[in-house]
Each structure stands twice: as C-alpha cells, then as structure tokens.
Design goal:
Elements (H helix, E strand, L loop, with lengths): L4 E4 L4 E4 L10 E4 L9 H6 L8 E8 H6 L3 H11 L4 E3 L4 E3 L9 H13 L7 E6 L1 H13 L5 E6 L2 H5 L9 E3 L2 E5 L7 E5 H6 L2 H6 L1 H11 L1 H9 L1 H5 L3 H21 L16 H10 L6 H18 L7 H12 L18 H13 L5 E6 L2 E5 L4 H16 L1
Parallel strand pairs: 3-11, 4-5, 4-6, 4-7, 7-8, 8-11
Antiparallel strand pairs: 1-2, 9-10, 12-13
Helix pairs in contact: 4-5, 9-10, 9-12, 9-14, 13-14, 13-16, 14-15, 14-17
Bound molecules: nicotinamide-adenine-dinucleotide (NAD) and zinc ion.
C-alpha cells in the first residue's frame, strides 16, 4: 500500500502518493447511559487508553435538557462516581437544539471557543448529546478543532439513532444552503440510549421511522416484513419494538457505509437517499415545517409509485408501502407538492436538479425493483413524476 508509483513522460516525473487509513468505531445500544452502574461511557472513554483519567467536555441539546430537567445533575453525578476515568472539565454546555444551531455560525464559533478555553486537546473528548442537528454542529466543531479531536455522539432522537448518528458526516448550514459546510469525519464512538427516545414528542418519534422503512425497502425485505408485522407496536411506540427498529436500521446504514465502497461519497450514487430527492425539496419549500422524516415518507411513497409506473416494481407494492407508512402515522400528501414557480414549473421537480448538484456528477436516483431491492437510474421522466404526485393526491382524497 505504501509503495510509490512512478510515472514519467518527456517533461514530468510524477510520484503517486498512496495510503489508507483504517477507521473503526463502536456503536453501542443501551438504556440509561448515565446510571452510575452503566459503564458504557467509561468503557468507551477507556477504549484506547485504559489507565487514564480522560478529559471530557459535553455539549447538550437544550430541547432534551428541558424535557429531562434532572439530566445535567445525573451526568455530573455520573462523572463524579467515575472520577477515576472521567474528568468532566465543566458542567455540560447547553446548546440550541434543532435546526437553530445550524443556522448561525455564531453557535459553531462559541463551541470552538469553549474547547479552546478548556484546553481540549486531540486526546480529550468532546461528547455531544442531542438530536441530529446538535450532533452535526458539534461534530463539525470537533472535526476542525486542532484538526480533529475525539468525538463521541450520543444521539437522542429516532432519526439520529437509526440514521444520521451512525454516519460519518457533520455539517452546518451556510448561505441559506443546508449542510453547505461540513466534513466526513467518523466519530470515536456512538452511544444509543433508548430511554432518550421515550422522552421525544410524538411527531419526532414517528418521523424517524421513515428511515427504517426506507432502508428496509432498498436493502432488506425481511426487515420490511418485520416492520409490517410490528406496525401496531411501532405506531404505539412500544419500547421493545422501537429498540429493535432503531438497531436494525442503524445496522443497515452502518453496513452500507462500511461495505458499500464509498463511505465518503466520492461518487455520485447515494443509495441511502432513496425517496430523498423530493424530500429535500419539500423540506425547503415548507421552510422546514415538515420534519425530515415526514418529507422522506412522502418521497418514499412518490418514488414507489414512480417505480411502478416505470415498470420496475410490481403494481400493488406501492399500496403496501403507503399502507405501512400511514399505519405508522405518516401523512403521504402535502399541498406544496403542487406548488408551481412563475414559469409554471412544478417546484418539486426542480428538486431533481438541485439533488444532482448536491451529489455532484450525474443524476443518480435510487428506485425500487422489488421490496428490499434498490436500483439506480440516471434520468427521471417528468410526466411520470407528475402522475405519481396526482396518484398521491387522489389517494389522500379517497
Ligand atoms: N450527518 C448526517 O449524515 C445527517 C443525516 C440526516 C440528517 N441529518 C441532520 O439531522 C438534523 C435533524 O435531526 P433530528 O431529526 O434528530 O432532529 P433535531 O436535531 O432537529 O431535533 C428535533 C427537536 O428535538 C429536541 N430533542 C432532541 N432529543 C430529544 C429528546 N430525547 N427528547 C425531547 N426532545 C429532544 C431538539 O431540541 C429539537 O428541538 C438535520 O439538521 C439534518 O440535516 C444529518
Ligand atoms: Zn434521511
């Protein structure tokens, strides 16, 4: 791997530098992370250096802190109990939860300053506890302070536990563009605590399930059947069902990232983004009033119908997919689907162009060849997209 390849022509000698850096990080599933007898956090801190008191700083989502007023004290008590290995340099820092933290660079700079003030070095830990937005922002801060300090993610929403938290990306919004600034930086570890999920509001509990349906549809027919069979328990947020759904979904995302051949998205394919081209557009068209997962559910339904119209997916399967999504609590229609711009073009279709620009390279859209089988296409037929939208509209009217 390390040999240099030499290439010469008449004018130039080129040495080809080449090396590979292996990445490895644990993703743990547990309950009540900060109960003193739960040693997951301590084992994680000590993974590389066992006999050390590890310096730790914590950024905590204020939305989560408000719904769990005892959490800050619990974390402090945990650190005190495990003071042999954990040096919590200050009380957890509350940071704005939700998209707010990603809309103003001031919050990013403030977190950088906190790391600087507390002399957090490349062997210390920055832990982020919160939803996907806080993890994205804190991840960017951790990836860039000293060119990268150890970062542990503790995702606290369904979406961040089953999807974004196990990924390798971070970012913040800039120039009105979502995730314009960010890096691909694998975390040191990801710790998922099902107890946090039980605190979430109903809308967020439902929204995150869209990613499970998505990844089942493109990768795992058995998981799709499991979702169907357990949809009553999922719709009523039974803990055992929610925990399995999250873990299996996270596992499938990890597999795609780890074994899919393109963890840092150098190519233009993005198989995990099934149903996402219209979802991204719907999110921005509705000024983020639609949650990501709510928009993804509509995108899944739209592309399922499109897959049928295109002759890829067996007719009837799109109904089966819509039925599951609706049973889980999703609405598969939003009036923004019919928005037109001044040139009378459907705005959502402009999302296709934006999606291509976002990926770079050629348009690559994942559709369905079967339940559990994604297939990539490089063009989309506008007429069939319109027919799919009309089909969704008719469905909700009936
Ligand atoms: N990096 C990636 O690969 C990736 C992938 C998908 C999405 N994302 C990003 O994730 C973000 C969305 O994340 P999200 O869906 O987790 O929502 P979120 O981070 O926007 O959080 C939603 C709300 O829930 C609150 N909250 C968080 N945990 C809670 C809990 N346990 N109890 C009560 N309230 C809680 C937050 O304060 C916030 O108000 C977006 O910014 C999106 O761009 C990133
Ligand atoms: Zn998504």
């Amino acid at each position: 791997m390390t040999e240099q390849h030499v290439h010469s022509n008449n004018t130039t000698t080129t040495l080809m530098q080449r090396f590979a850096v292996p990445f490895e990080f644990p993703v743990s599933f547990t309950e009540n992370l900060f109960d003193p007898e739960n040693t997951t956090v301590i084992e994680t801190l000590c993974r590389k250096e066992a006999d050390k008191k590890h310096k730790v700083i914590i950024f905590l989502d204020d939305g989560l802190a408000n719904s769990r007023p005892e959490l800050v004290d619990k974390i402090k008590a945990y650190a005190a109990h495990h003071s042999e290995h954990m040096d919590l340099v200050a009380d957890p820092f509350l940071v704005p939860g939700g998209e707010k933290i990603k809309t103003d660079l001031h919050f990013i700079e403030q977190m950088q300053k906190t790391l600087y003030d507390y002399h957090i070095d490349r062997h210390s830990f920055a832990i982020a506890i919160g939803g996907g937005a806080v993890l994205d922002a804190a991840g960017l801060v951790a990836a860039t302070a000293h060119r990268g300090i150890r970062h542990i993610r503790i995702p606290t929403t369904v979406l961040s536990q089953n999807d974004s938290g196990v990924g390798v990306k971070n970012g913040t919004n800039l120039y009105g563009t979502k995730n314009y600034v960010g890096t691909f930086t694998p975390p040191f570890a990801v710790l998922n605590d099902i107890a946090f999920i039980m605190n979430l509001g109903v809308r967020d509990k439902i929204a995150g399930m869209a990613e499970a349906v998505k990844v089942a549809l493109i990768r795992d027919a058995d998981f799709f059947k499991w979702l169907e069979q357990n949809s009553d328990d999922l719709a009523t947020f039974k803990k055992t069902a929610m925990a399995y759904m999250i873990q299996r979904c996270a596992e499938l995302h990890m597999k795609q990232i780890g074994q899919g051949g393109d963890p840092f998205e150098m190519g233009s394919a993005r198989p995990l983004d099934y149903g996402h081209w219209s979802a991204h557009k719907l999110e921005s068209m509705t000024h983020y009033h639609l949650r990501h997962g709510e928009a993804v559910a509509i995108g899944i339904a739209l592309d399922a119908r499109y897959s049928v119209l295109k002759g890829l997916l067996k007719p009837g399967e799109e109904d089966r997919i819509c039925f599951l999504l609706e049973h889980l609590g999703f609405k598969l229609w939003h009036p923004a689907l019919e928005n037109r711009n001044i040139e009378n073009q459907l705005e959502v279709i402009i999302g296709l162009r934006e999606f291509r620009e976002h990926l770079g390279g050629e348009l690559t859209i994942t559709l369905l060849a079967d339940i559990g089988v994604g297939v990539e296409v490089h063009e989309m037929d506008d007429d069939l997209v319109v027919q799919s939208i009309n089909w969704l509209k008719l469905r909700q009217e009936n």
